[in-house]
Amino acid sequence: MYPQVRLRRLRKNANTRALACETRLAVSDLIYPLFVVPGNKIKREISSMPGQFLYSLDQLPAFIDQIAQTGIKTLLLFGQTEVKDPRGESACADQAVVCEAVKLIKEKYPEFVLMTDVCLCSYTDHGHCGPIVEGYVDNDATLEVLAKVAVAHAQAGADFVAPSGMMDGMVAAIREALDDQGFVNVGILSYAVKYASSFYGPFRDAADSTPQEGDRKSYQMNPANSREALREAELDVLEGADLLMVKPGGPYLDIIAGLHQNFNIPVVAYQVSGEYSMIKAAGAKGWVDEQAVVLESLLALKRAGAQAIITYFALDAAKWLVI
């Protein structure tokens, strides 16, 4: 007890604070989400996400070179399509823009770990994450399409496929399809715990994936629930998931901690678009120190138990961490 015990002894200068540091953030912890779109000569800033852009394939090589210089080696790819339909079938094509992006990046940087989002909301003409039958997203019909998308991405060279639609049985359906086609070494990063969150607005602008009618509360999780998150994660582990994601990250630190404590499998946190845009807006106004807030928020995700973090701040954070 005080005065014999003085915890401030371990805080008195930068070196002693570093010695006692319990949680460390590294560039290798960061995953950068990247939007690719059909067309040419497109580098278009996302209005609700300052500093983030949509890229056509011809614009990717120069940007990938920039990413490589930061030391980041893991990307999560999102795509769009020029042709939408009720089932999102264009996502399955081997010439889909995500598949082409994977091939392009792997040709120049084969060591990069490429993850691909496997969802249909950017490809359906109604903006939901699967085919709609009698006003309801049909779970099992969606699984059929998701399995095809995952195989197409694996054929292109993806290292991990990341199903994000919160369909029951999605991991099992994708694992079976991948294994049947010989892609036993392609991993699954499951959006195991994805909440029906209000923090996704800017992303939906970027991905052109806003539902035309209704919402996604019949398949994404209720923000009020935490025990359900453990059930979702347990099922995905049993079905063959290699990594478990919690989305969003910051508002759900308790969920990240719960998965970390209950499962011997890496947990990935997604610091989503709304989190990014709020920090950017406050930083632009001078209300917060953007760099300090970003690094603190990422450290919080790591401290809660995330082994890796998907964040739009990845490129900036990578530079700040080596200064």
* Structural class by secondary-structure content: alpha/beta
Q: What series of H and E elements makes up the topology?
A: HEEEHEHEEEHEHEHHEHEHHEH
Mean pLDDT: 94
Helix content: 25-40%
CATH superfamily: Aldolase class I
Instruction: Write down the CATH topology.
Output: TIM Barrel
Q: Can you tell me the number of structural domains?
A: 1
Largest sheet strand order:
1-4-5-8-9-10-11-12
Poorly predicted tracts of residues = none
> How many extended strands?
12
Major beta-sheet overview: 8 strands, parallel, barrel
Q: Given the C-alpha coordinates, what overall shape results?
A: globular
Instruction: State Rg.
Output: 20 Å
- CATH hierarchy, class: Alpha Beta
Strand residue content: 15-25%
- Count of alpha and pi helical runs: 11
CATH-derived architecture = Alpha-Beta Barrel
Distance separating the two termini = 38 Å
Q: What report would you give on this structure?
A:
The protein contains 11 helices and 12 strands. The chain has an 8-stranded parallel barrel with strand order 1-4-5-8-9-10-11-12, surrounded by 8 helices. The protein has a two-stranded antiparallel sheet with strand order 6-7. The two termini are 38 Å apart. The chain has a single domain, classed as Aldolase class I (TIM Barrel, Alpha-Beta Barrel), CATH 3.20.20. The chain has helices at 14-19, 60-70, 97-108, 139-156, 170-180, 201-207, 227-239, 253-262, 273-284, 290-304, 314-321; strands at 30-37, 43-45, 53-56, 74-79, 113-118, 132-133, 136-137, 160-163, 187-194, 243-247, 267-271, 308-311. It has 323 residues and is of the alpha/beta class.
